[in-house]
Amino acid sequence: MEQRALWVTYLLIILTLANEMSSAVQARDNTKRRTKEKGGFQKNICDITDRDSKVHCYCENTREPRNATKAECWVFNGGIPRDDLIWQSFASQPTLQTLSFNVRVDGALGYVPTKALQYLQRLRSINIKYGNIVDVAPFALANLTNLKEVSLSQNQIETLQQYAFAYLPNLTVINLEDNMILEIGKDSFFDLPKLQKLTLTKNNITTISNGAFQHAFNLLELDLNKNSIFHLNRHTFDGLANLRKLDLRKNRIYNLTEFTFAELWNLQELLLGKNEIKYISARAFDGLSQLRKLSLDDNKLAVIPSGLFEGVRGLSALDLRSNELHALTFDNIKPILDNLKPLNSNLLLEENNFVCDCRLKWMHSLRNETKSQSTKDSLDGVTCKMDTPIVSSAYNKMSDDTKINYSLEILHTSATVEVVDKFNTTDRKLDENESSEGKKGVKRNVLKIPAETLPCPKETMTTTESPPFIVDPVIPIQNEMKTFRFHEMNSAERVSLTSILVMSVSFIFFNT
Ligand SMILES: *[C@@H]1O[C@H](CO)[C@@H](O)[C@H](O)[C@H]1NC(C)=O
Ligand SMILES: *[C@@H]1O[C@H](CO)[C@@H](O)[C@H](O)[C@H]1NC(C)=O
Ligand SMILES: *[C@@H]1O[C@H](CO)[C@@H](O)[C@H](O)[C@H]1NC(C)=O
Ligand SMILES: *[C@@H]1O[C@H](CO)[C@@H](O)[C@H](O)[C@H]1NC(C)=O
Ligand SMILES: *[C@@H]1O[C@H](CO)[C@@H](O)[C@H](O)[C@H]1NC(C)=O
Ligand SMILES: *[C@@H]1O[C@H](CO)[C@@H](O)[C@H](O)[C@H]1NC(C)=O
Ligand SMILES: *[C@@H]1O[C@H](CO)[C@@H](O)[C@H](O)[C@H]1NC(C)=O
Ligand SMILES: *[C@@H]1O[C@H](CO)[C@@H](O)[C@H](O)[C@H]1NC(C)=O
Ligand SMILES: *[C@@H]1O[C@H](CO)[C@@H](O)[C@H](O)[C@H]1NC(C)=O
């Protein structure tokens, strides 16, 4: 067996060698013939036989000069000068409509070959991949009037110079995905009247100049997913009155200020998931009258400012999963509540820090009324905890010393402290029942708690359907509190510590 395998290998090597030799001879012949024919440097780019050439193209339609419409080129060896004669050879196929460069060796193509493109006046699509293009120079695409699509994904672009993409009257799509672009300057995209889709996903963008996209006023889709953008203002998206979809997921936005999207009158989809949004202006979404879909999942929102959804009354899909919300009131949701009932609507709320109280009552009726299965499923999965924001009020009134001791004690006992005095006595019974089962501080499904037994803080007793949301000034401790779970395994010692703690908290509470 082994001997046979050896033979096969041997044969294969011989065959390969023979093949290499014959093609080398052939290549030499061809080069000779061509040099004779042309008497110079200009080769047919679709028929390069010179093995040392740094660029080789395969043309689909024909190998004859002046007739190919599609060329796929490979760049093998690095360091081609910008004015290398090879680029002039593209003049041999002026009817090319589709051209792509696959760069095979790292560092083999460090610029957009404008010198080649300028001969290709009929070009509609250009695609360069795996190069090490660090910057895109002004007019890199040679003002090609018929160009429709440009893809420069997976290069190493850091800078888009002024007029990098300019005077391209038919350009519809630009794809710059997976580069290292650091910022979007003012005139990098200039005079692009037909640009509809701009993809900047997976770059290192931190800043966008005001009005950076204003010369691409017909843009329909702008994709800025997976960057490091942390600040947006009311001029960032100036001029984008036609935009339909804006993707800003996976950035570092933490403060959404007022009128940020005010220019985007036609926006239908706004994706802000996986940012660090903690602060949000009540007027952040003002102007988005056409918005249908808004995602704010995986952020750090603890509070939804009242009136936030007043400006987006057409909203029918809202994702607020994985935030730190402790309430979402009827008042918050009222402007869009009716949109959340049809079959195709969608409201997602799981993984928050909701407190079990009557501000969540509306979830029961929405669960009943919505026709959307995903909304039903999501509501079924919404959980809340019985500990209350009231605790933080009590905490707020302690002296600083006590605060420290208090927090330390909680840390050591892993207990959830409950101060129920502000609650109606009927509601307190529920708490006691829960505590006797050792469930205090445990997450519960909102919908499994009968709506009428959801406790109401005293402040909100007068109204049942749309209680005003009392913003508690001391949110930090509340979040701290939530991380301490009640353990059934608590030792007797710990349990007694807990009761001391409860007592002292009540004491402080009653004395203030
Ligand atoms: C070039 O292509 C056209 C049609 O695509 C064809 O009629 C013509 O014969 C071709 N010319 C050569 C030299 O191959
Ligand atoms: C493109 O057009 C601009 C403005 O007309 C001009 O300044 C620039 O030289 C042109 N670039 C090329 C490569 O044709
Ligand atoms: C856009 O492309 C079409 C067809 O490819 C062409 O007829 C037209 O002249 C181009 N527009 C401009 C402004 O050059
Ligand atoms: C771009 O971001 C990636 C990942 O976030 C990082 O590894 C890389 O160093 C950044 N490059 C530059 C030029 O900032
Ligand atoms: C958020 O941005 C607004 C407007 O720039 C500013 O007034 C506010 O102080 C910022 N908030 C935080 C917490 O940074
Ligand atoms: C849900 O619907 C049922 C029957 O349609 C009704 O009896 C019940 O009161 C409703 N519950 C809520 C919370 O609206
Ligand atoms: C907090 O604890 C420290 C020692 O752990 C003690 O000296 C201090 O008096 C305590 N403060 C209060 C207000 O109990
Ligand atoms: C407590 O709430 C119940 C209904 O939930 C109500 O009937 C009762 O009057 C309330 N009691 C007080 C003291 O507010
Ligand atoms: C107490 O718990 C039991 C068992 O889970 C339940 O049947 C009962 O309704 C609860 N009582 C209150 C007041 O929630």
Mean pLDDT, rounded to whole units? 78
The portion of residues assigned to helices is: 10-25%
Main β-sheet, spatial strand arrangement:
1-2-3-4-6-9-12-14-15-17-19-20-21
Residue windows where pLDDT falls under 50 for at least 5 positions:
11-15, 17-40, 388-439, 460-512
Bound molecules: 2-acetamido-2-deoxy-beta-D-glucopyranose
Structural class: alpha/beta
Shape: elongated
Radius of gyration: 33 Å
Termini gap: 93 Å
For the biggest sheet, the summary is: 13 strands, mixed
Residue share in β-strands: 5-15%
Number of helices: 11
Strand tally = 23
Q: What do you see in this structure?
A:
With 512 residues, the chain is an alpha/beta fold. The chain has a domain at 349-466. It has helices spanning 2-38, 85-88, 114-117, 330-333, 362-369, 373-381, 390-396, 400-413, 425-436, 475-482, 492-510; strands spanning 55-59, 70-75, 98-103, 125-129, 135-136, 149-151, 159-160, 165-166, 173-175, 183-184, 189-190, 197-199, 207-208, 221-223, 245-247, 255-256, 269-271, 279-280, 293-295, 317-319, 346-348, 383-384, 444-445. The protein has a 13-stranded mixed sheet with strand order 1-2-3-4-6-9-12-14-15-17-19-20-21. A two-stranded parallel ribbon has the order 5-7. α4 links the parallel β20 and β21 (346-348). It binds 2-acetamido-2-deoxy-beta-D-glucopyranose (9 copies).
